[in-house]
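Bumping with the actual sequence this time:
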Amino acid sequence: MPELPAVEITARLLEASVTGVRVMSALAPGVNALKTFDPPLHALEGRAIQSIRRRGKLILVELAGELTVVVHLMSAGRFQLYDRPASLRDRTSRVLLRLEDGRELRLREFGTKQRAWTKVVPSDRLAGEETIASLGPDAWPAPPPFDDLLDAPRPLYALMRDQHVIAGIGRSWVDEILHGAELSPFARGSELDSGDAERLRAETVARLGGAIDHYERTLTLPIPDKLPMPLTVHARRGEPCPRCGEEIEAVFYEDYVMCYCPACQTGGRVMKDRRLSRLLK
């Protein structure tokens, strides 16, 4: 799933290339991807793109005339710029914004579940739009202090991924952040002292900011379908910890894996594999 760094660099690259360009036509080959009908999608036609920015994991395309296109990539979506229009028979295409200069902004989805979506929202109602209004503060660049934000009897791994608590972090970067802060993914938010909370906040800003800086140095248009992620812990089970050299361990769930260093994060304890635990019930 695209997380904050990937969404941020996507918004930056696209904004730099299409600001001021008008939308010639707007189509939704994947009709399920369009979650609003008023304003209609064709209301975008003839309007110039004013900005493209990020909120949490959402992409916001702001157009003249006070309309905003909200794009949620979900797990397998990509929002990219192409030099020529797509064929309407392209099964990955969900929403197409064809530009007056012949290029096209295209929401594509590579999974089978068809979860990526868009909404057209009047800009003056954007803050109250349900998805945006429910988001917690952005994890980058300046989240509020974590003392109160994470003061809950839930594991840090769940809290940090909860978009209602803090927006933008997913499975990949939560592993990196918790490892950097030397905190167990199973520690409860309410168990953190002020030093832990500040260390976690600082690590969140540093890790996400470092990933964005990496993308700024290495990426240009066209944006690749799969961005290379500068990860050192996530999906690295069996490899040495970059800090202490201990073998990185993993806990497997039904559709994802959580990675951590026992020596740095769990006091040497290797956590149970959830798949095996279910089989033993």
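The tokens above came from a reply further down the thread. Residues 194-218 form the longest helix (25 residues).
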